[in-house]
Amino acid sequence: MNELFTIQLLQPGYQAGARDLILAGLAGHWGQLDPDRNPDLQDLCTAYSQAVFLVAVQQERVIATGALVPGADGTAEIVRMSVAADMRRKGVAGALLQALCTRARKLGVRQLVLETTGTWQDAIAFYENFGFKKTHTLNGDIYFRLIL
Questions:
Q1: Cα angle value 53/22/88 (rounded, 5°)
Q2: Pick from 12, 2, 84, 81: nearest CA to 45
Q3: What residues have CB less than 8 Å from 136, skipping those under 6 apart?
Q4: Mind listing the domains of the chain with CATH numbers?
Q5: What Cα–Cα distance (Å) separates residue 23 from each residue in 64, 83, 102, 130, 136?
Q6: What letter does residue 37 receive in the DSSP assignment?
Q7: Which of 10, 31, 34, 51 has the most CB atoms around it within 10 Å of its CB?
């Protein structure tokens, strides 16, 4: 990694950059976007007000996003993991996911869950290398769990 980045809580000033990054990632994977499928992206600060939504920022540019959504019984879900295409394979996603795990432990979370599309081999390998274990597959999505 040539330039340093910081990981911080999402602030209103980074909301547009986070939304654009997530949409760009979705468009890159799917080839097109259905705007009605992502209503949470219109106002991330409100949609994730009960979550821990982190952004990685480099020179005022949002280069990665990820959120920790608390659930029941000591479980939380990781959602909206996205990394700018030019920043992939540079340690940004790993640093962001580690920061989410650290926050989860501080909140008393005992297990993390997440899901990704079964055809996204890079994402699947990333989560497995981080220590997540596949739990099941449903409708083309793969579900993972990490015990903290």
A1: 95
A2: 12
A3: 142, 143
A4: 6-112 (3.40.630.30)
A5: 12, 11, 26, 24, 26
A6: G
A7: 10
